[in-house]
Amino acid sequence: MNSSVLRRVDAGVAHVTLNRPDKRNALDRATIAALTAELRHCAADAAVRVVQITGTGKVFCAGADLGEMQAQAGASEAANLADAEQLATLLTVLDSMPKPTLARVNGDGYGGALGLMAACDIVVAVDSARFAFTEVRLGIIPAVISPFVLGKIGERAARRYFLTAEALNAAALKELGLVHEVVADGLLDTACARITEVLLQGAPGAQAQAKILIRDMAQPAAGDRAAASMEAAGRLARLRVQEEAQEGFSAFFNKRKPGWRPN
Questions:
Q1: What is the CATH T-level fold of the domain 5-185+204-253, as seen in this structure?
Q2: What is the DSSP string of 14-56?
Q3: What is the CA radius of gyration of the chain?
Q4: 13, 6, 7: which is closest to 49 by C-alpha?
Q5: DSSP letters along 102-141, please?
Q6: What is the pLDDT of residue 1?
Q7: Tens digits of residue pLDDT in 98-109
């Protein structure tokens, strides 16, 4: 098992944990691959009834590993496409999981972290957590996560927060529909245990069929999220090699304003 992702199964609940606290649980290629593999294992394991995802330490997930992205600043569009498609695959595996999924959001979440939350069935977040769709400030877009996020927050909210990259607290995300419950830090485990207990009372086959029913009936495009995410990966790959993205990442790592910011 890759140490960047931990998994333990206890009384029917698979606890899957992002385990890169020194990198704020950022999603590099190895972590995305490991998380995808763990989720597939959970889907196939009859002993797993509920899947819970969380992060080690005080941060849920910082989104993409910007250090890794910076290291491949000169990578081709094809290489960037492969990276984006890897994330699309992860989100699709999570979104299509036949078992109930619960995001135990123990701290801040940015970019791709919001995709993980959106792809889960139920999200419980601590009230101290902060979130943002930060991509445009780096010259890119929240492409791969957009089909999953838009299914939760809708076009109206996306038109604001995809463009402004404003910081949001957990209460705001609850209002937008991306978080179900907001709790004090000390009550996170209690809330997750309560929801898990309720989930375990349902018939697993019926729950799997209920999830399929929701995807089929909620909105016409819901069943096409996987294809939409893959298509969006191409958009991100094309942007990632453009001048704006290069400038955005350079400015971020050199702690200066990007060229598009007014003086």
A1: 2-enoyl-CoA Hydratase; Chain A, domain 1 (3.90.226)
A2: EEEEE--GGGTT-B-HHHHHHHHHHHHHHHH-TT--EEEEEES
A3: 18
A4: 13
A5: EEEE-SEEETHHHHHHHHSSEEEEETT-EEE--GGGGT--
A6: 47
A7: 999 999 999 999
Q: What residue segments make up the domains of the chain, in order of their start? A: 5-185+204-253
Give residue-wise pLDDT tens across range 232-263.
Answer: 777 778 877 888 888 888 888 888 988 877 76
Q: Residue with structure tokens 């697993």?
A: 204
Share of the chain above pLDDT 70, in %: 97
DSSP structure string for 229-258: HHHHHHHHHHHHTSHHHHHHHHHHHTTS--
Closest Cα partner for 111 from 128, 136, 129? 136
Q: Which residues pair with 138 in a beta bridge?
A: none
Does residue 148 carry a pLDDT above 50? yes
* In the predicted structure, residue 223 carries a pLDDT above the cut 80: no
Helix (H, G, I), strand (E, B) or coil at 214: helix
Average pLDDT, the chain: 91
Q: Which residues are catalytic?
A: 135
The residues, any chain, with a CB within 8 Å of residue 198's CB and separated by 6 or more, are none
Angstrom distance (rounded) from CA 214 to CA 39:
20
